[in-house]
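Quick start: what a row looks like.
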Amino acid sequence: MAVDSLPLPQAADIPEIKLFGRWSCYDVQVSDMSLQDYISVKEKYAKYLPHSAGRYAHKRFRKAQCPIVERLTNSLMMHGRNNGKKLMAVRIVKHAFEIIHLLTGENPLQVLVTAIINSGPREDSTRIGRAGTVRRQAVDVSPLRRVNQAIWLLCTGAREAAFRNIKTIAECVADEL
């Protein structure tokens, strides 16, 4: 009986979830309409840390539901010496977001979303072969591939900029964004 009489938590009682305890995802806008379903930053995907240990690769298109900051973090864990070091990648993203916030005064999540929208390619070329001859054909890029390539390009650019450089990887990620 006592369980039935407890009041349900209201929307005002639930605390706002902020990334790293600092940045809210509620005011982040995805300006590109085609990418709204593939850049997940809304309240449903809000996390304190970009580490959910989710199984996003088990079904097709499920990685579109992975929070965008976690996808950036996972992409930073590439290239041999950084494989599997997720805590290091989370720390890099946290420091990069702090640098972005200090330099621009904006929400780093909004800066990340804008960078992904701007750096994703809209058109690509594919090989079409006929009777032994191969030619390149221009094709449109799907929204999920645009997001994937944008994240990959941002991480690769930051990694190459930080290699043999006095700047830290977090500073290079902040510069790329």
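That is the whole record. The longest helix spans residues 143-162. The chain has one domain: 18-51+58-123+137-176.
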